[in-house]
Amino acid sequence: MFDDARRPAGAGRRRKERDMSNTALVVGATGIVGQALAARLAAEGWVVHGLARRPRGDMAPVIPVAADLLDPAALRSALAGLRPTHVYFCSWMRHATEAENVRVNSAMIRHVFEALPEPQGLRHAALTTGLKHYLGPFEAYASGSPPETPFREDMPRLDLANFYYDQEDALFAAAQAHGFSWSVHRPHTIIGHAVGNAMNMGTTLAVYAAICRETGRPFVFPGSPAQWHGLTDVTDARQLARHLYWAGTSAEARNQAFNIVNGDVFRWKWLWPRLAAWFDIEAAPYPGQATPLEAQLAGAGDLWAGIARRHGLREADISRLASAWHTDADLGRPVECVTDMSKSRRAGFTSYQYTPDSFTDLFARLRAERLIP
After folding, report:
1. Active-site option among 16, 134, 141, 164
2. Cystine design at 219: which of 195, 212, 300, 355 (Cβ 3.0–4.6 Å)?
3. What is the CATH number of the domain that holds 69?
4. Number of structural domains the chain divides into
5. Are 29 and 62 contacting, i.e. CB atoms less than 8 angstroms apart?
6. Which of 132, 134, 165, 208 is the catalytic position?
């Protein structure tokens, strides 16, 4: 697709001129991935610009950039003064059909590169996608005959429309045109901190557990028998941030796609009682079939608002914390999901994250920030 030998003339000289500093543009800086990555890069001494439609006011030392990725003119104006060395795509927009997902999410990638005043000055650009690369889009999720696990990066694309594929192609085309290296990162379910995020299993389960403790409802695993009994893995947002940082600074990671998970495997029937214990509740016996959270939490808005008032919580709107539809999609899958990390290991990435800590660290932060009781 792309290699160093095909860089445009002058690209090496421009790179040498900018090697003394690293400046990142994090696209989607208020999401689970973007927040963790921006914090990591800032801790490494990078200058970090965080792009979002509505940046928060407490992003320092990240420099907020407000822009709509679907408004090329406004995006061009917002990025006019930026000369990043690295761009990280950590954002997507959900639409009703995969055809719309393809159109909109690939356009977002192209618009950023078109808006940057000097895209030829980039050294690296990274795209975060996920296991839908192997399982298919939401409207055909884990249906048909998904590939056998463990998922490996050299598995062919599915013969389905999938916005991940179109985002990759937009990234490859820009890298070819402007002479920078690229990496693609495919996490499993991401566990991390973000309020108002469309896909947030960790916080969703924290809200569910808090409701069960407050009301005495049984804390029932909502997913499928395949997920309850089978092996699986997840990706801590901090582990993903480490992976993105590594790929952006490592020659061995250039122009490669990588899976990224915590590095351990577990069964939900083992983890579920441990999550319950953190909330001082009992894990209910598994009923033998899925009991989706969308149904369990339907109409829970007033209930959560009452819990928020009693405990002085900062967020009374349950929809800002819980994304039951996404958690149901992940936990309701009828197939085993295990991800191979050999490619990253062989290339030099050796970081590891213990999965129970991914959840309990998040729960502790949510409680400390008065987002759960």
Report:
1. 164
2. 212
3. 3.40.50.720
4. 2
5. yes
6. 132
User: 271-299: per-residue pLDDT in tens?
Assistant: 999 999 999 999 999 999 999 999 999 99
Assess if residue 332 is contained within a domain: yes
Give how far the C-alpha of residue 285 lies from the chain's centroid of Cα atoms, to the nearest Å: 31
Range of the structural domain that residue 74 is part of: 23-187
Does residue 238 fall inside a structural domain?
no
Give the global pTM. Answer: 0.92
Per-residue pLDDT, 4: 38
| Residue 352 annotated among the catalytic residues of the structure | no
User: Crossing angle, helix 201-215 and helix 301-311, to 10 degrees?
Assistant: 80
Q: Is residue 137 part of a domain?
A: yes
Residue among 247, 231, 213, 215 at smallest CA distance from 87: 247
Question: For residue 95, what pLDDT is reported?
Answer: 86
| Distance (Å) of CA 288 to CA 27, 226, 266, 291, 331 | 41, 10, 19, 9, 13
Residues 130 and 174 in one domain: yes
Q: Say yes or no: 212 and 319 in one domain.
A: yes
Query: Residue 155: what pLDDT?
Result: 95
Active site residue 208: no
Regions of the chain with pLDDT less than 50: 1-20
